[in-house]
Amino acid sequence: MQPSNGRSGYNRKAIDWIKDAWHLAKPYWTSEQKYKAYAQIIAVIALNLAYVYITVVANSWYNSFYDALQRYDKKLFTPLVIKFGWIAFFNVVVQLISFYIRKHLEIGWRRWMTDRYLNNWLSNQAYYKSRFTEKVDNPDQRISEDIGSFIGSSLDLSLGLLTSIVSLFSFVGILWHLSGNFNFTLLGHKLYIPGYMVWLAVLYAGLGTYITFKIGKPLIKLNFRQQVYEADFRFGLLRIREYSEEIAFYNGEQQEKTGLTGKFHNVVDNFMRVVKRTLKINGFNFAYGQTSVLFPLLVNVPRYLAKGMTLGDLMQTMSAFGRVQDALSYFLDAYGSLAGWRAVMDRLYGFEESVVNATNLHGLEKLPDQNGLLLVSNLSINLPNGKNLVQGINFKLSAGDRLLIRGRSGSGKTTLLRSLAGLWPYSTGEIRVADVASNELFVGQRPYVPAIRLREAICYPLIENLPNDEALKVVLRECGIAYLASRLDEISDWGKILSLGEQQRLAFARILINAPTVIYLDESTSALDEEMEQHLYQLLQDKLPASVVISVGHRSTLKQWHNQELDFNQLQSA
Ligand SMILES: Nc1ncnc2c1ncn2[C@@H]1O[C@H](COP(=O)(O)OP(=O)(O)OP(=O)(O)O)[C@@H](O)[C@H]1O
């Protein structure tokens, strides 16, 4: 079973971690970009192998250099220094090219994956319907940060593993060759252990990894929790920014501070646990690291002093031992990254699951019909928990008809509009329209005014063929906001700057520009005086006489602008 909602993956088996990673990575590596991606990864792998080869050459250079020193061989000094220069040069070149190609691979992969996530999230209104499925916190963070972290960590860990394995095999060979046999007598029998330095390195690294694993195991869980607490805290801060004015009006700072302090307390508390645990691991690792320099020296110095090996052999053995030890300690070093990698995978999983489930939720499908512009028969609206809200809704609207929906608060008026717009997955009945692809526009009590250039915000969601300045000015004047004409090219957070009444007038300008066939107005004039309300409804009648208008509102003055009425107080629930 896949981890659900990003909270349970860290106790899965190692093989499942790889399967989970492949599940997330597969769409890119089998996409139309796969050839480019494979070429890049092959190049990076080849360069990593070249890097290991360079370290092998450098390792044998040590032998030659220290042997030359031991023999006071002046002639060899200059060629050996030049050779070292070449080794260093190739090392730098290989690493720089590898870095460059790898970054290209990373950004190409991230671009593709982000595009896919955005498409899935924004199509079929999954971004909206995910409110009905499991709650996924911070989808923005999942798209903006987690994809990049997943790609970076996957490449780091897999290339690190590959380099460690290749390095291990290369240096085990060298170490085996250098270490010779370890001869000893046991119970009168002469025995020997071939390549004893290799066995010592395996034993040494195995023991080190085992102890680190034992001390560090809780760290995976702690790091995972750290990410969750940090995300909770960030989400809390984000909400304050979003609702700053409402909080300020309520003087709700104390309440908010208490909530945020609680969340931050979790961050600090867990952080200290991470620090204490890391202290233990680091304490061991430092001691272990220091001994790993001394250990091969202590083992080999007796043989060197007995003239059983040259100074070059001794230095090369020490360096090879270090390399073998490094490679074997791969998991020891990758410990912290593994925890982060798992957490990121779980968050992406949770996001993918939620998007799939949301995409599978469908509103009522609209059927074609030439009998009117909009026909609703026997519509019944339920809540997500299955409880019926209202049933038996019937009406027929032809071009130019205007329907007023009234009823007490919470009776389901807005939810009817959601059902008509295909956003509510819990309705039954039949909706028929003259043209399935007809153009609809929904205007809520607080119209959505994006933080973009004002002219685009007014015309939203129109993106092509925007009216010219003159046409825009006329519409703004007609809607009573002529003074905004001078700010058409300004980019601001209009939703926070404009008053609610200004935003509602802007929404009417938007209707005139988009000229939809069906217009939904959900208490869209609630912040305006009756005079302005009359003026705007008159404007709709004059400019868009053929459009169907469906209004939700409590004011009795609205009645005169509608020729049909649906009273929710007269309807029953099951
Ligand atoms: N996502 C949701 N999950 C559960 N219940 C919901 C959801 N959205 C709306 N409801 C419930 O559906 C009921 C009808 O809500 P709706 O917004 O349609 O009422 P309304 O008639 O438009 O109210 P008002 O006149 O106050 O705007 C309410 O009880 C509301 O709590």
Automatic annotation (TrEMBL):
Coiled coil: none
Main location: membrane
Domain ABC transmembrane type-1 residues, every copy: 41-340
Topology versus the membrane: Multi-pass membrane protein
Transmembrane feature ranges: 41-62, 82-101, 159-179, 191-213
Species this chain originates from: Aquella oligotrophica
One protein family per Pfam: ABC_membrane_2
PANTHER family per the UniProt record, alphabetical: ATP-BINDING CASSETTE, SUB-FAMILY D MEMBER, LYSOSOMAL COBALAMIN TRANSPORTER ABCD4
GO cellular component, one term: plasma membrane
Location of the ABC transporter domain: 374-574
UniProt protein name: ABC transporter ATP-binding protein
Lineage, top ranks: Bacteria, Pseudomonadati, Pseudomonadota, Betaproteobacteria, Neisseriales
Molecular function via GO: ABC-type transporter activity; ATP binding; ATP hydrolysis activity
Keyword field: ATP-binding, Cell membrane, Membrane, Nucleotide-binding, Transmembrane, Transmembrane helix, Transport
